[in-house]
Amino acid sequence: AQKITQTQPGMFVQEKEAVTLDCTYDTSDPSYGLFWYKQPSSGEMIFLIYQGSYDQQNATEGRYSLNFQKARKSANLVISASQLGDSAMYFCAMRTNDYKLSFGAGTTVTVRA
Amino acid sequence: DVKVTQSSRYLVKRTGEKVFLECVQDMDHENMFWYRQDPGLGLRLIYFSYDVKMKEKGDIPEGYSVSREKKERFSLILESASTNQTSMYLCASSFFSSEGPQHFGDGTRLSIL
Predict the structure, then answer these.
(1) Bridge partners, B94 (sequence order)
(2) Residues from chain B contacting residue A37 (CB–CB below 8 Å)
(3) How many C-beta atoms lie closer than 10 Å to residue A45's C-beta?
(4) Which one of A16, B21, B91, B98 has the fewest beta carbons within 10 angstroms of its own beta carbon?
(5) What integer pLDDT is reported at residue A23 of this predicted model?
(6) Which of B43, B89, B94 to mutate to test the interface with A (most CBs of A within 10 A)?
(7) Could you report the per-residue pLDDT of B63-77, keeping only the tens digit for each?
(8) Are A32 and A53 in contact (CB under 8 A)?
(9) Could you give the CA distance from residue B91 to residue B48 in angstroms, rounded to a whole number?
């Protein structure tokens, strides 16, 4: 079974600072994809960034970057220059060959002014 | 932009009622999914469908059924609602290929009294 672990239930970060959200995964499939989603208090799930298992470079999307360490099976999300609007719950997810997603428990980020 | 629309943001029903949650997507996606989200557990897959009239059980199908009569619409049915089905329900869709993210609706907060 696929497993995603997010060990940080909640984090505080100062506005304009960077924050790293941890994610480790476990799979025996050679081909997989890793995703990060943001869920504000309003409830919608917003796709942020994707990393394929065969991608040579770490994915980046604006202020979001994914620190992919394949040998360690980790896919940490880095949010640079935090903004108040970044306060939300963040989910790491993995997809393998059957195109289903397995989600971690999530990390709540609170950005302080 | 992909639009996934769930019929209700908030819903209150009584124990034993038959409950229908509707989801419609406008991007001609083959895959559609139903998840439930509970604190500390992340998102768990209830059912998914990769084609009209096709369905497969996810990780927690007990007490639920689904219907997909048209490509754009995927319905989740609680046959006889129980209090332990009080939760946030999220619908998602994606293309059939394993690349690309799942796109989510805004969620339905369902309370069973």
Answers:
(1) B31
(2) 104
(3) 26
(4) A16
(5) 98
(6) B43
(7) 999 999 999 999 999
(8) yes
(9) 10
